Each structure stands twice: as structure tokens, then as C-alpha cells.
Amino acid sequence: MTGTDFPPTGIDFLPTEIDFPPTRIDFLSTGIDFPPTGIDFPPTGIDFPPTISVGGKSIPIVSQGCYFNNTINDDLDSLMENQSLLESKMSGLHKILPSLQILETDSKQLHGMVSFTSTLAENVSSKVRQLDLAKSRVTSAITRVEDVLDLKFCTDGVQTALQNEDYEKAASHVHRFRSLDENVLRMTTETDEGSTLDTSFRLLHEAEEKLRMIVSSKFDAAVHSGDLASIERFFKIFPLIGLHEEGLTKFGKFLSSQLSESSYKTLVLADNINYNDKQANVIYAETSTQLFEAIAKVVEIRQPLVETYYGHGRLFTLMKILQTECDRQSRKIIEKFRHKRDFDRVVQQVQQDSVFHRPNATEKFDPKVLDVLLSEMVLLNTRTELYLRFFRRRAVADIEASKLEEDKKKESVSIVDKFISNCDLSRLMQEIIGSYIMLEEHFMREMVLKAVAMDSTESSSQTSSMVDDTFYVVKKCTRRALSSSSVDGVCAMLNLACTVLEQDFREVLMSRVRKGFPYGFDLSQAYTMVQTSIQQGKIQSSDTEKEKTVFLVSLNNAEASCEYCKALKSSLEDEVRKLFLKCTEQSKAKLQTCLGDLGNVASRFKEVVDFGFSQLSSGAIKPRLKPLVDIFLSTSHNISEEDFTNYEANDPWVQNFIVQIDTMLANFKSTLSSGNYDTFVNHTTSEVTSQMEKAVMKTSFNRLGGLQFDKELRALVGYLSSVTTWTIRDKFARLTQMATILNLEKVNEILDYWGPNSGPLTWRLTPSEVRNVLSLRKSETEGIQNQDKTETKANKQKPPPHEKKRTPDMRVRPGTQEE
Amino acid sequence: MEDYKYLFKVVLIGEAGVGKTCLVRRFTQGLFPPGQGATIGVDFMIKTVEINGEKIKIWDTAGQERFRSITQSYYHSANALILVYDVCSQLSFDSLPHWIHEIEKYANTKVLSYLVGNKIDQINRREIPEHIGKQFAKRYEMNFMETSAKEAENVDTLFLDIAMELTKLARQQELDTDKSPTFSAGTTTVVSNCSSCFRF
Ligand SMILES: Nc1nc2c(ncn2[C@@H]2O[C@H](COP(=O)(O)OP(=O)(O)OP(=O)(O)O)[C@@H](O)[C@H]2O)c(=O)[nH]1
Ligand SMILES: [Mg+2]
After folding, report:
1. Is B1 a member of any domain?
2. Would A447 disulfide with which of A297, A473, A526, A663, CB 3.0-4.6 Å?
3. A686 close contact with B: CB closer than 8 A
4. What is the DSSP letter of B143?
5. What is the CATH number of the domain that holds B102?
6. Ligand found nearest the CA of B22
């Protein structure tokens, strides 16, 4: 057990065979109960000491005592039997005792060895740590030595470089020195060596200051003498000596002065421009464009320089300075523009006009002058927008390329955006656009009012001149607004276009239509006169005729306006899509919403058309049809065979009816636009069916009369189908069904078509209407009232074959009927 | 026709800095933007109101003078106008007649107009007492409300009230137009179901 190998492999450490405490020796083992549970001690059966009760009861106690005695004896015997077992166990324990002692010694030894090893290991690792630390210190010591050497080298180098006026070299020394951590260098030096370090530092600081001053003044001198090479030379040195801002500012100011100079020259040129020059009308827009181009060129050229020597993320500093100059120059240009174009007076005049509503003001501008002015204004703005977009793009791209963190970048971009929207140039343009909207609105309204005032009707056209003229003006104005690239400007002009179209133009049409279509004497003659008067290009007939023409032309105008409005909307939509491709979603949504309003105006024109037709219907169609339907009413449909044949030869009314309608339609056909003519036919048809339905309900029929009516109806449907482009049968569904009922051989045949027998036929007549129509059949009226089903079946006759064929006429395509 | 959805145009107007943008942002986004910059031109937002599913399109205009002609172009088609002033600024209140003049000049006669006194959270700086504002609104037949965009007071109420009023007006108008004899007036006979298909 005391073997040298450790941990001893021979023995199990804390061997598992010897349970410790050993379990084999049942010490306090459960085998022997101790105190043995077999006997109760003190026995619980008796009181101890036994109590002897008084009065002849002692005998039972004695006998009980004897019994108790016996039990104890038995118990003792069994205990004695266990003795030998216990003894052998004891001797076993004695034998184990020495080995336990060995175990204890071994354990102690083992403990000793383990703790020794652990101490040893800890010692080793702490040594390693120390070594590591020492190594890193050595490294930093080396760096510092290098730094100190560099410092000394820089100190010497700076002096020489400054002496030799080699400012680049001096700056690079200073740059190196600036990258050293001065405090750390000072801390680690011994005091005696510290004095030399101090001197170095002092010298270097002095050199740095000196260099800053030199570079600064040399740069100024270079600017002063216009020495471009030196300017660029010193501009590159600034960032090396930590003067990024100053370098950019100085350089920016220099560039600004150059811009100012060139801008002044172009402005002088602009002032002296010849009026015949084709740029004369837009010269101030051109002048500011030149300014913007000059700035763009400067940025274009200098950006690489700034990026290389100043790093990314600093271009905006330079651009800000350039923008300040741009603001100044732009203001000058705009002031000149205002002055030369008499802008303020024009604005004031227009404002007054709109305040006092002077439609006949004598001092009106020549719209041509306004037109020219407006074009220059939008050009000014669109060039500015283009330039500002360039500005933003460049500044943002430079920020994106920098090493800033993402949220810092976002912040910088929002600073750029804020700067742009608040710069003087933006505000100037906001003012220009504000005035532009006001003037453009004025121009648009004036031109529309003029178009209305000078309205005339050409013989070749169904509409009058004001529609084309108005939409030409509105389109011109809105398109000009689009070319300004100002989203708010476009939206405002779209809104105003809607207002002008609704207020100043639609109202005129509506008021003309509202007067209604007059009717008086012989109508057919009146139509012809309208027609001829229109054909002659002038109206010389009576007031009524004039009114009629005005009404019909206005109706056509409204219809055309509705179409033009839709067309204008879609063409503007296309342009907006192209021109404002790159603007924000918000701006696009704004534009889209304002364009949508133009669609609403289209439906407002449609309302005029609808209203006009309701007027036309009551003024022309209804009174025209009334006498024709009266002829039907006065024609008997309670006829004999003879009458029927006679009717065949001499049509009682329907041919005349058709001829009259045809004349009416023909008259309107030439006067109404094709869309309106279709609507007119539609209305006429509706009126015919509605009046005929009423008339039928007032007429009585016999079998032959029903057949006659059926024939007449066919003729009518046939004619109207020939003059319309769409199917007309649907409108006649009810009348056709009435005819079918009236044409039944016997009234009870209706049950073949009604209810469960209706098959594919969709009834347009309600049951009570069917009953009413049936009641129009003279002879059969009583029969139907006492009708019952058995009779129906019994009396059922096959309809003549030609009638059977007719049924499909009554059918209406499933689904066309609404619920 | 039952769940007919309406789209209303609501336009906010009033002097610069009275809190129009803040009111809109509070209603549409539920927040009070710190450091809200002046509005440039016109902003717009669409919000669906929960009551009947109607949508309101809110145009937030710039108060600064140079945007006036842009702003004015929105009056005509507005269903409701909200004229805002700042209860802590006598100046903004004094300018109201001028704004009302603009409304009379450019807006539709049927426009629903509201006068709103904003920033009532600044109790100590108030210059216009509530009854003065109310009286003014009454004189010009406007609805009146005081709000705080900052403390979200009355903001939702304002817009929901407008939405409800406009829905009511629109329903009324719909009934009126249905009754009015437009061109289908000719059919005085039994109006068959088919008559609607004539209205292409
Ligand atoms: N205390 C307080 N301040 C408010 C409240 N509403 C707006 N403001 C502040 O008023 C200032 C102007 O708010 P805006 O919402 O930008 O004002 P605006 O009317 O939109 O201004 P313009 O866009 O220039 O017409 C901001 O500084 C807001 O923080 C308010 O309810 N209480
Ligand atoms: Mg705002």
C-alpha cells in the first residue's frame, strides 16, 4: 500500500470492497434488534410494580406472575442462542482493525501529495502570467522608444522643413506627432530624460502653431495673388495639421469669390441682352442656370481633391459655403428679374383684379406678356429644382461613403435635407412658385372667360368653340405647371384647373342647359330650321330657334367636356409618371389625389349631360310622341277579320309613327354629337315603350286586335333596332310580353307560360299586371275570373304553329333582369 | 348601398406655428412630434375612421405667407375646413377674420367649418379665454372646439366629430339627389326594375 507510484494504481483508493463504514459488519445491524423488540421491557402487559388489589383477588396476580416468568425465560434462551453469532462477529471486527489503520496513514500521505502538486502548478502559471506581462511591456516600451525617437526625429525634421519652406514635410511631421499620445509619453519617462522630451514637445507645439499660421497666411496670400497652384498646395496641407474646417472654409470662400465674379459678369450680359435674342424672354432663368452650372462644375472638379485630402463626409461643409454664395447670387438675379419684368406691378394688379372682380377692367394685361412671364418663372423653378437635386445627391453620396455609423449617417442626411429646404434659394423659389400659381390661375381663368365670351359655333362642328378653347387653355396651364417640377405647384394648379372648369366653365353650360329645350309650334319644321341655321353658320331665326340651338350645342359641349376632361386627366397622368418618377411616395400620392379630382370634374360634366337629357326628354321627346301615341289610342284593336285585312293594306298608325320618329331622329342626328345621339335614341326608345305601355293598358283588344298589335309592335322593334347600335329588345321586353298575352288564342293559355311552366322565360310583368293585360281581352274577361285548373287542362288547345314560334321573343336572357 | 364608403377632404388652415401639423400627427399617428418644423407647401394623409369605415383625407397646409396661393387652391374642394388658432397667441386670434374672409372667398358654400383653439395645455400662458373663442365661432356660424395636440385633448373628438357630421351631410345629400327629378323622371309608369339599366 505504500507504493511509490502516485496515484497508486494497485489499490483502489477508498476501495469499494471495504465499505466504510463497513457494511458487512452489521453494526447496529437490523438483524439483531437492540433493544430486542421481541420482549417488552418493561412489559406493557402488567403494571410494574404489580399492584395488589384489596379483597381476595391475589390469586390471579400470582398466576399471572408465573406466566410472566415463563415468557422471560423463553426470551433469555433465545438471546443466549445469539451470543455465539455476536462473538464471531466481534472477532471479525478485531481482525479488520489493523487494516483500517493502514488506510488512514495512506490517505494522509495522498492528501499531502495532492496539495503539493497543486501548489507547484499554481507557481508555474503565475510565472507564465508574469512573463506575458513582461512581454507586453517590452512591446510597448519598444513602441514608446520608437515614438520618442520619432518625436526627436519630428522635432528635428520640422525645424529643417520649416527652414527649407518644405511645408508638406513639416506638416507630415506635425501630423505624425499629432498621432502620438503626449500624456502617455510624458508619464513613462524618467525625470532627467523628461526635460529633453519636454523640449521636444514644446518645440513641436511651437512648430505646429507656426505651421498653422504660415499655411493660413500663405493660403491667403495665394488667394490674394490668384496663385491657383499655391492655393491648391496649401489647401492640401490644412487637414494634416488638423485644420479641416478652416481649410474647407477658406477654400470655399475662395471658390465663392470666383463664382461671384463670373455670376456678376453673366448678369451684366443678361441686362444688356438684345430684345431680339431668342433667349431674351427667359434670360434670367438662363442666368441662374449658368450660376448653377458653375457651382456644379466647381463641385465636380474639387470633389476628388476634398475626398483624397479630407476624407469622405466633409464635402457638405464645402458645399454649404458654396450655397451661401449661390443664395446671394440667386437673390441678385431674382431681384433683376423682378425689376426688369415689372414683376411686382403685375402681381399687384392681378391681386387687385381678383379682389375686386373687375371683369371689364380697362387696365388688363396683354395675356401674351403674362404668358411669357409665366414660362420664365417655371423655367427658373425647374432649373433650381434640378440644381438642388444635384446638390443633395452629391452631399448624400459623400456622407454614405464616409466611415460614420449608420444612425450618424441618417442624421447627417437629415441635416442636409433641412439645409436645402431652408436655404435662401429654396425660399426664393417658394415665393416665385407662390406668385406663379396666382398669376397662372389668373391667366387660365381670364383665358377661359374669354373663350366663353367669344364662343361661336361653326357649321362643321357640333360643339362650339369654347370647349376646344377652354380645354386648350387648361391643358396649356397645367402642363406648364408640370414643367416647373414643383410638386406643390402642380397640385395647386390641378386644383385650380378643377375649380375653373367647374365654376367658370361648367356653370355656363349648366345655365344654358337649365333653360331647357323650348317647344311651341310645328316641331318638325323647327328642327329643320335649327339644322339649316346651323348649317349656314349663323343663327337668324326666331329666339326659340336660337334657344334650341344653344341648348343642343351646350349638350354637345357638356358631353365633349366630359370626354376631354378624362383625356386631359390620362395625358397628365402619363406626364406626371414620367416627370416625377424619382420623387417621394408622399409626393406621388399627392399628385395622384389631385389628378383624381380631375376625374370628378368629368363626372360633373356628365351630370350636365344627364340633366340636359331630362330637359330634352320633357321638352322635345315627350311632346313629340304624345300625339303619335294618341293615334294608337284612337285606333281600334277590337276588330273583325275584315278590319284585320283592311289594316293589312292601309296601316292605321304604326307606319306613320315610325316615319315621324325617323324624322325626329334624323333631325337630331345632324345636330347632336354621336355620343349624345346614341343617348337621344336611348331616351326616345324609353319614352316610346313607357308611353306605349300606358296606352296599351287603356285599350281593349280582341283576339284579332291582339294579333294586329303584335304585328305593329314587331314593326316598331324592327325599325328601332335598325337605328341603334345596341340591342333594343330588352327595353321592349314588357311590351312584347303584353303582346304575347293579348295574342293568346284563349286567355287560359297563359297558364302554359306562367309559374312552373314559365321555363326559361323571365317575366317582366308582375302577376297583377298580367291580370290587367288579360282583362283587356274583351270577350274572354269573364272566363278568366271563373277559371280553374281542370277546365284549363280540358280546354287547352294547341296554339297555332306560328304562335308557338313566337315565344322566344318573350324570353329575356337569364340574368339581365335585376332583383 | 348600405356600407357605402365615403372619402372626405378635410383641410387645416391657420397662421404659422399654431399647431396644425401637430394636430394631424396626433390624430393620424398618435404622437406629438418634438421639434416639428414648419410645413413646406402642403402635406396630406389619409386615415380611416372607425365608425362607419369612412375615410378622411387630411390636407395639412403651411401657414407661412409665401405658401398662401398653394393653400388657397385646396379650399374649393374641401368638405370641411379646420381653422386653427393658438390660445396663447393673441396675434393668431386677431388674424382669424382674415382667414374667414379667405374661406368665404374660395371655399364651397356648403363647407363644414370648425374653429379650433389649440395648445390649451399651456394654462399659464393662455391669452384667449374659451368663451371669447366660442363667441367668435358663433358669430361666424362655425363649430368650435379647444384642443391640445400635446396632451391629446379633444383631438380625436374633433376629427371624429367632423367625420360624423360629414357622413350625416352626405347621407342627407344622397337622399335629396335620389328624390330630385333627374332624367329618369319621365318614367311615371310602374317603375320596372329594369329602369336602372337605362342609366348607363
Ligand atoms: N404646448 C403645446 N405646444 C404645441 C401644441 N401643438 C403644437 N405645439 C408646438 O407649436 C409649434 C408649432 O407646431 P406646428 O404643428 O409645426 O405648427 P403649424 O401650424 O403646423 O405651423 P406651419 O406648418 O408653419 O403652418 C411646435 O413647436 C409644437 O411643438 C400643443 O397642443 N401644446
Ligand atoms: Mg405645419
Report:
1. no
2. A473
3. yes
4. E
5. 3.40.50.300
6. 1
Instruction: Please tell me what DSSP assigns to residue A457.
Output: B
Q: Does the distance separating the beta carbons of B197 and A818 come in below 8 Å?
A: yes
Do A593 and B44 lie within an 8 Å CB cutoff? yes
The residue in chain A having the minimum alpha-carbon distance to the alpha carbon of residue B72 is: A492
Higher pLDDT pick, A210 / A119: A119
Q: Which atom of ligand 1 is least distant from the CA of B24?
A: 15
Angle of CA points A572, A574, A576, to nearest 5°:
65
B44 located within any domain: yes
Mutate to test the pocket of ligand 1, among B12, B15, B22 (most ligand atoms within 8 A of CB): B22
Instruction: Identify whether B198 is part of a domain.
Output: no
User: What's phi and psi for A304, nearest 5 deg?
Assistant: -60, -40
The pLDDT of B104-111, averaged and rounded, is 91
Q: Which residue has the cell 498653422?
A: A212
pTM: 0.75
B122: in domain: yes
Closest CA to A425 of A395, A399, A389: A389
B47 — phi, psi (to 5°)? -135, 135
| Cβ under 8 Å to A: B residues 36-75 | 37, 40-44, 57, 66-70, 73-74
Query: What is the reported pLDDT for B163?
Result: 92
The span from the CA of B163 to the CA of B52, in Å, is: 9
Least confident interval from A58-62, A363-367, A433-437, A547-551: A58-62
Alpha carbon of B23 to ligand 1 centroid (Å): 8
Q: What is the ipTM of this complex?
A: 0.87
Contact A530, A620 (CB under 8 A): no
Q: In testing the pocket of ligand 1, which one of B13, B15, B21 has its CB within 8 Å of the most ligand atoms?
A: B21
- Kindly write down the DSSP assignment for every residue of A11-61, as one continuous string: S-SS-SSS-SS-SSS-TT-SSS-SS-SSS-SS-SSS-SSPPPPSSS-HHHH
d(CA A310, CA A314): 7
Question: What is the C-alpha separation between A610 and A615, in angstroms, rounded?
Answer: 9
User: How far is A313 from A412, CA to CA, in rounded Å?
Assistant: 9
Distance A206 CA to ligand 2 centre (A): 54
Query: What pLDDT is attached to residue A501?
Result: 95
Asked if A611 and B186 come within 8 Å (Cβ–Cβ), the reply is no
* A563-584 pLDDT per residue, tens: 999 999 999 999 999 999 888 8
CA distance A453 to chain B (A): 23
